[in-house]
Amino acid sequence: MFDFSVVTNWVHGWLMSLMPEGLAILVECILIGLGVLVLYAVIAMMMIFMERKVCGAFQCRLGPNRVGPWGVFQLFADVIKMLIKEVIAIRHSDRFLYNLAPYVVILGSVLAFACIPFNKGVEVLDFNVGVFFFMAASSIGIVGILLAGWSSNNKYSLIGAMRSGAQMISYELSVGLSILTIVVLTDTMQFSEIVERQADGWFIFKGHIPALIAFIIYLIAGNAEVNRGPFDLPEAESELTAGYHTEYSGMHFGLFYVAEFVNLFIVSSIAATVFLGGWMPLHVPGWDGFNQVMDYIPGFIWFFAKAFFVVWLLMWIKWTFPRLRIDQILHLEWKILVPIGLANLLLMTVCVVFGWHF
Amino acid sequence: MDIYEKITALVPGVRLEEGATPTLYVEPASLHEAAVALRDHAELQFDFLRSLTGMDWGEEGLGVVYHLESTRLGHQLVMRTATADREHPELPTVCDVWKAAELNEREVYDYYGVIFINHPDMRRLYLRDDWVGYPLRKDFDESEELNPIRMTNEESSDFTSVYVKDDQGHTVETKQVLFEDDEYVVNVGPQHPATHGVLRFRVSLDGEVIRKLHVHCGYIHRGIEKMCESLTYPQTLALTDRLDYLGAMQNRHALCMCIEQAMGVELPERVQYIRTIMDELQRIDSHLLFFSTFCMDLGALTAFFYGFRDREMILDIFEETTGGRLILNYNTIGGVQADIHPDFVHKVKKFIAYMRPKLREYHEVFTGNVIAQERMKGVGVLSREDAISFGATGGTGRASGWACDVRKRHPYAMYGKVEFKEIVFEEGDCFARYMVRMKEIEESMNIIEQLIDNIPAGDYQVKMKPVIRVPEGRYYAAVEGSRGEFGAYIESRGDKYPYRLKFRSTGLPLISCLDTITRGGKIADLIAIGGTLDYVVPDIDR
User: Fold this and answer.
1) Does the ipTM exceed 0.90?
2) Most C-beta atoms within 10 A of its C-beta, which of A17, A250, A307, B417?
3) Hey, is the C-beta of A94 within 8 angstroms of any chain B C-beta?
4) Mutate to test the interface with A, among B298, B311, B529 (most CBs of A within 10 A)
5) pLDDT digits 0-9 by tens, B505-526
């Protein structure tokens, strides 16, 4: 199993030989920050490309296919277009909050993104309350969306933001409950540790029934958490034209757009990490030969394969289902998912206490 | 005439003229009384106001023609009233008798300046508030100075006028508030993805809940009825396709039929067959587009592409025969423009064989979906009484339990000779409206299958005179359009131009019932209701 900490240790040692420790750590922080941002942008582009192709396939279309082979350069054209478009300052808006909002959204998204363990040794933010930190960081985005809706001085935006606030805060609960179910199983909140514990089988297999229920609840709630169909009410284009980001243009709109796609990736990769073993290869206890073969496949490939599989699942749902109504969304969360989540947490606790898991 | 005796017993001072459809002449003073009597008398029961037409008869003054029908007893009546006062024309409103009159009377006010006493909302309907004069009056001054192209925005007023009679019999204008200052009013349209065109609503919201809704029309008003008055009859045909562009065949069929009936033209069977098949193809086309756009409105984007993919096949069939895909220009007075393409029969059969399994696929991907069902069932319920009172015909009326299909009520073309079911649901909610249209696709295919193999040989066009003159008189003909009864009313004075040509819009009644059925619903319900009412805006604005 390839351990990325070899590389990080080597870089650290090399920098220490050149400069004092404080400076070396500063340089490392900058390098890691740049790395996270570059990866963030690359993932965003991959997600947008994937969305177009997957959606095209579901809708009996080809998707982009004119610019470059399979239309891959379409993305770069779009990014450049987004970057050079004018950011329009609208009259009667709260200028400061209006400009701040997209950065708050992207900040929450990047912080949550940094929590993801991509490979053994590639964990940027990894500490003993990692799950807790992830939940907190991902909630910052709501503030940005509410600010955007409020400061735009547009009634559609405001309704979109209010919907979004009600929806995201509600569904946070189910996301938390389903992750908590796994935390009960593992007795750790550190993401790297959660992955390590899955060396002898992924939690979706080890936790059997309660883990499976938690996984399904997580998929539903996670999908709602990132405002994607069938839970895309905050920006329901046939009702509110574009919801909270109606008044944004240029790169400010681009930040919302990118954050939405990366949030989808984040939700999927947390699902992959917590339930499907993250970068951990598929191990079956007892089958040593099989396990060794699996270990030859690098961890990040396992991770991305699983994460994009979940992304694909969520895209399938988005492009097939119609949208819910606001009262139905809240009904689904508070009267169905939360009670099931709580009962499931209890079930998992009982399972752990009596040792009914693998 | 027994109806006459009954009416004269109820309302003195009326005059009845017999004809294919009896015409009742009523003085404005007894109009309201007559209207109530006509609707409520047990043996008359004229509960359906088919069409309301404003008129300028010159010497006789300004007036209104009402086309009435009883949904229970099936008989029809034309009621006419006129006021000689051209300076301050006033008529009593009948919108408390038939709700359909509410928007139609606003249209008459807009075109002729007739003020309807006690009408709750006497504003212009299509033209700008600052328009000078009343364009359909025969003495209208068309000069550019009076009505230049205005470069300013039109501010929407929060007030409306209501005209009432005071104790001395003077007409008094009172201002009524439409929206209070502290109401949260959201503007939906004219540029909005879910209004399917340039329609505009002002919606007063309480959180997500709709408190009331006002419709603003006229963003695509082209004055087609005014234009028709200076066009020869064959020229007027070109405009019908541009009303309801998803009912182009049927609209033109209605106008052709009206002119042909007026002139007493006998059509060859072949023409009737072709027209019937084309009308049904058009209906399938329209319902497929309804399915697609409705799914898109509810957020199911994949179903949208399915519908559009299959609709292409119909458009290809149209294109081969008519040369057009949307604006078809196919029916002519006394026939059709061109004979059907040699491949037509084969392609239509192929399409029907292809479409049946696809419909099952639609039901699997959308109708059976639990979210779709939740969004549609019990949402936007229109009662049968309201549907009749508003004159909401077509799929909307049939979903509310009102068997209002013109093909059954007044069979025309081949509809009397083919077998098909009239789809009627009782619930009146969005799901019923949706299912009516989905089932009508199947019925339309059944009709086409009965006809497609038996198209008789013969001429596709009757030889007509080079100049077509319609004999003096008044004529009304209606067809079942894609979304309701589409009628053409011609008043002719024997010229080559119509004296007055009015189209009974299929969409206007549909939007007039929007306020009633959306109240208390959510914003998302407005979209679902608007989608299932399936209005087409150019048809409303004309």
Assistant:
1) no
2) A307
3) no
4) B298
5) 888 888 888 888 988 888 888 8
